[in-house]
Structures are given as C-alpha cells and as structure tokens.
Amino acid sequence: MAFINFQGHIIICEKGASLKKVLLENKQEIYNGNAAFLNCRGLGTCGTCCVFVTGKLSPMTRVEKWRLSFPPHKGEKGKRLACQAKVLGDLEVKKGEGFWG
Questions:
Q1: φ/ψ of residue 4, rounded to 5
Q2: Which of 8, 50, 55, 98 shows the greatest Cβ crowding within 10 Å of its Cβ?
Q3: Which domains does the chain have, with CATH numbers?
Q4: pLDDT tens figures, 50-73
Q5: Is the pTM above the cut of 0.85?
C-alpha cells in the first residue's frame, strides 16, 4: 500500500497503480480547465496531466521523457506525467497552474 498526498487529500492505493487512474478514481482533478476535454487520454503526448511529484515513482517512460523535453515543460525539475507514472511508494503530488499545469 502507498499513501498519496494530493493537494491536501490523502489517498491510499496499491503499489504499481497508475497515478492518473488513482487520482481520477478518487475524484481528484488532474486537468486544468479545458485540458479535461482536450487531452491525449493517457498516451503521454499532450502533457496536460503534468504534476510535481516527490516520492517513489516508476522510471520515466520514453514517451514521458520526450514530452517533458520541450515547452511548456522543458527544464522544470520534479515534473511527471500522471498518465505514465506508476506509484511505487508514498508520494506528495501537486498540480501547477494554467492549461498545462
């Protein structure tokens, strides 16, 4: 079991679970504004499920590294795509501002 602190909400999940699925199943909004409707549905190509994470996650996928390597995400430390990340331990997760978060 792992504990996720998402912006003050504590969620318990199984290790190995998709971060995106866990947050959405617990009615936590990972998309800002119209990104809830205009997103890649978990393919890792749009970047709208981007979150700041501290804790233990799976290594970045090839697609996630690619998407986070250019604007608006390029150069920002601690960012992950919720759709590509698997929970491996306790996490602190925050969503940024604006369309891309």
A1: -115, 125
A2: 50
A3: 2-94 (3.10.20.30)
A4: 999 999 999 999 999 999 998 888
A5: yes
